[in-house]
Amino acid sequence: MVRSCSRYSRILWLLAAAALAPQARAADRLLYLEAQALGGYSSDRDKAVFYSNDRQEVMQKPSVGFDAVQKFSGDRGDFGSLAVQGRLALNVDGPGTAEPQLYNAYFKLKTRPADLWLGHNRPALGLSAALDSHGLLLPPLPMDGFGFDRDWGLGADRDCSWGDVKGSLTSGSGMSLHFNGNWLAAGRASRGVLSQDNYSAGLSVAHGKTLDAMGYHLMRDEPMSFTMGGADITGLWNNWEGRFEVLGGQRLGEPAYALLWRAGLNLGDEGRLKLEAQPVLLRTGSDTHHKLAGAVSYLVTSDLTCRGMYQYDRATDDHRVLAQMYYYLKL
Amino acid sequence: MRICALVLAVLLGLPWQAFAAVGCDLNDPDRDVARLFPGSTGFKTSYVSIKDKGADALLSRVEARLGDTFKGLYETIDVPYTIYEVLKGKEAVGHIHGVNQKGVYGGIQVFLALDLQGTIKALYFQKLTSRYAKALRDPKFGKQFEGLSLKDFQGYDVASGKAVDSRVASIKNPAPGAEKDFRSALRGVKKNLILMDEFVFAGERPKAPPAEKAK
Q: Which of B6, B7, B76 to mutate to test the interface with A (most CBs of A within 10 A)?
């Protein structure tokens, strides 16, 4: 693990240096500083915690990072973009360590039939293929092992007038890259363009042999069969938001199912205040449990958001309360 | 705990008043550019902010031309505006530009497709969650903006909603209950045209016109 962290640390610093390097064409690039402070209380551990999900999981922890997008263009227009997003997260519990984390790290090439990407990006499975949870406290299903928030590999996206189609072939190892015979092929098609139609409904399938990973930590070395299919729908209505996702199939060699519902209400001037509720039902093998979460977020300024979350996890009988200050500043 | 204190110190030391914001991108630029400019073959994306382009002096000029102050989450000085220069082969044929505008239910994203003279070819609402979204997105509503330019919107008062130009004055609210979002849309259009004039078209003219005030 030390070797793995060291390798990602080098990659992260190289990419950070590239992102922060003097800009030849400032107008081609966006660069943001990201910083967050996070803390809370877990009844299961009966003490203060400084992570939202698990100490070994990557999100969320106190961290400082950056988010950069560089466009590449020629005489005939844009032909590609590079996205790099990294954090240096602090593990406060136990021996304090700094953990370099790499999220987006991909090059996207525009071609006539589709956009092709290579690197570390979202695999084409479920709601998390379309929903950015990077700074949020409410956990998406990949945090419970139903797919990966990010994975190493390649993929293709095509936007159509009725929706979009995505496909990916990735390592099935999540945050870190391993070659133990692991792989994951995934595809998602959605109908409706959320920003235009105020709804989007998607169907996903995935199959492969994946590693049981939690952040940069491998729970097992051997890849396990992973087959998953699912449906998701997102809808917007006035100041209401609703998201629903169901996934079912096999993971870790056992039948597995997950149901997620996230309801949100935007309130106040400019929708600065957001209230959300999220019940989740999970089943792997014969183990069934649920999580109930409620969250509140407030946009203090356009770059500072304060969030709070309460979550009850039936599996560990844990009541958890968390507070987060999230800063996202354009440089 | 020392690490925790360090993070807090970093956060507290950041310039809290230095407002930054996320800009207004087309969600699917390939699809939208092809739809708004049939026959186009590509586009170039660039980012520009009032802060980078002219800082406080430019902000004051934009506010004077708009006839209103910039305020809230969507109108900070360093919002990175995304400008799409639309190409046919190697030749520019127009621009697409969007702005965030405060609406009844959060932000509305008001995109304009402009020809090289800054004349509106199409109005396009991207994010618009109001129950009246269907009426505001109706092609008949958008059609009323086609052929208009900043010159026509100069006499539009964003505070009162009154317009000097007869074509702007004749733009009809598509639904009685949508009055607030309708007025937000018109303010967004005028803001969009002014920003494009400052960011793109002013540089292509021999001399910028004097700042104008809404009547």
A: B7
Nearest CA in chain B to A194: B127
State how beta strands A224-237 and A217-218 pair. unpaired
DSSP single-letter state for residue A285: T
Nearest to A236 among B73, B76, B129 (CB): B129
Provide the CATH topology of domain A2-330. Porin (2.40.160)
Which amino acid would we find at residue A185? A
Contact B157, B168 (CB under 8 A): no
Closest partner CB to B42 (pick from A78, A160, A198): A78
User: C-alpha B4: how far from its chain's center?
Assistant: 41
Condensed to tens digits (0 to 9), the pLDDT of residues B161-195 reads: 998 888 999 999 999 889 999 999 999 999 999 99
| Cβ neighbours of A110 in B, within 8 Å | 30
Closest listed residue to residue A47, CA positions, set A325, A320, A324, A323: A320
Enumerate the residues of chain A whose CB falls inside 8 A of the CB of residue B106: 239, 266, 270-271
Q: Which residues contact B203 (CB under 8 A, 6 or more apart)?
A: none
Q: Domain extents for chain A?
A: 2-330
Contact by Cβ (8 Å): A1, A217: yes
pLDDT for B16 beyond 80: no
In eight-state DSSP terms, residue A193 is: -
Q: Are B43 and B29 in contact (CB under 8 A)?
A: yes
Residue A32: both structure tokens together = 């943001």
- The one-letter amino acid at A17: A
